[in-house]
Amino acid sequence: MPRATAARLDTAALAALGDLELSLADQGVPARAAGLTVREFLATSPTLDEFWTPLTVLDGSALARNADAIQAWATAHGLELMPHGKTTMAPELWEFQLARGATGLTLATPGQVRIARGFGASSIQLANALVAPHALAWLAGELADEGFSFWCWADSIETVEAMERGLETSGAVLPRPIDVLVELGAPGGRTGARSDDAALDVARRIHASPVLRLGGVAGYEGSLGHDRSPGALAAVRDYLDRMVALFERIRAGHDGELMLTAGGSAYLDVVAEAFAPAIEAAAGRTADDSSRFVLRSGASLVHDDGFYRGISPLGGELVAAMRGYARVVSHPEPGLALLDGGKRDFPYDEGLPVPLHTTEQARLTSAPGTPLTEASVTALNDQHAFVRVRESAPSGAALALEIGDVVALGLSHPCTAFDKRRLLPVIAGDGDDTVVGLVRTFF
């Protein structure tokens, strides 16, 4: 079974990010950075204590550890990795994984696909339907590049017909058919054909289309569970087994490359177990079997101190590579401190930030300071976090927080952390707070 090769981004486009001029509109950067390019500013060896709070910071050593760990894990289980780029929308971080063996990118919207193409991405899976005529016309032009591989999803015959209609009304001329994966769903899930028979009907309709090519089977298991309870794991496994069965039925009557793809970052172990028989069968058929088995884990690069820390099966191998920092600006009553970062600054949809430690007064550092073992964030306003003594704290416990102290915060859910920042500093890590990168996002 041949494995796809890594698809790197355009080096010139990535290098151009270092030529972007910094300004005071770049939230958190020191005032002295204004007027310098990213490259010029980094050449001055800035340190984290120069940056203004509230702040979200990436740890370079942790990113490298996670990227290596998830790539090695996927490879060991016979899976390609096409990480979901919508998590970060940061081409520099996309390249970080492509350089380690990821075979492409997954994205969620046509606009995201266009951004990735602008950075030279040559292997893209759109984990969504593509029915807008103008987006289809743009894609038709991109498919003239024979080195560009693209897949999108469809979960109904109506979706297929909308694609055909959109291509026709746009006047686009396709140089080759669009690869479309049948999306299988489940009751209570997200998108996806709700029954196996309906999914087969979609597959047949794609196969009959003059402008589309049946590319395989796709799905998302993460919406079927939110923890590792027996019920959630059983629902996820049943769904993945259905995906594999559908793939094998299509494989039996179809020549050419077919992809089977699933996976967020919560149940990737169950994905690997469910896909294992199909991977073994493909390896045993012929040396040139063109089946591809793809994991789309996006949050594993950054991991977190909340949701994924609690649910990921790779908890011992992945570490949180993002952290929030906020400063104490008010101590209005005993046992309560207000920080200068809130909903506009930190993710909160999968759990509130967790106070990890304080730093020396008015100084940022990645090294632990005073542990906040008796404290928790109990609420967020737009630009404030409420830090209180835990209800379970011993009687008389007090917050060891002074106005001006900086609190390091563990964050939950990378997918809603990056969209709040246009620029994120990257520290060297391992106790070194030198800022070695400024990651630009494209939301």
Q: What does it look like?
A:
By secondary structure, the chain is an alpha/beta fold. The chain folds into 2 domains: 59-303, Alanine racemase (TIM Barrel, Alpha-Beta Barrel); 322-413, D-serine dehydratase-like domain (Lyase, Ornithine Decarboxylase, Chain A, domain 1, Beta Barrel), CATH 2.40.37.20. Helix content is 29%, strand content 22%. Strand 5, helix 7 (157-170) and strand 6 form a beta-alpha-beta unit. Helix 6 crosses helix 7 (157-170) and helix 9 (230-252) packs parallel to helix 10. The longest helix is centred in the middle third of the chain and has 23 residues, at 230-252. The protein is globular, with a radius of gyration of 23 Å.
In percent terms, what proportion of residues is strand?
15-25%
- Helix count equals 11
User: What composes the largest sheet?
Assistant: 10 strands, mixed
CATH first level of the largest domain: Alpha Beta
CATH topology of the largest domain: TIM Barrel
Number of strands: 18
Run of helices and strands: HHEHEHEHEHEHEHEHEHEHEEEEEEEEE
What CATH architecture label of the largest domain applies? Alpha-Beta Barrel
Molecular shape: globular
Uncertain parts: none
CATH superfamily of the largest domain: Alanine racemase
Q: Which class best fits the helix and strand makeup? A: alpha/beta
Radius of gyration: 23 Å
Number of domains: 2
The end-to-end span amounts to 37 Å
pLDDT average, as an integer? 94
Binned, the helix content reads 25-40%
Pfam families: D-ser_dehydrat
Domain D-serine dehydratase-like: 321-428
Protein name: D-serine dehydratase-like domain-containing protein
InterPro entries: D-amino_acid_metab_enzyme, D-ser_dehydrat-like_dom, D-ser_dehydrat-like_sf, PLP-binding_barrel
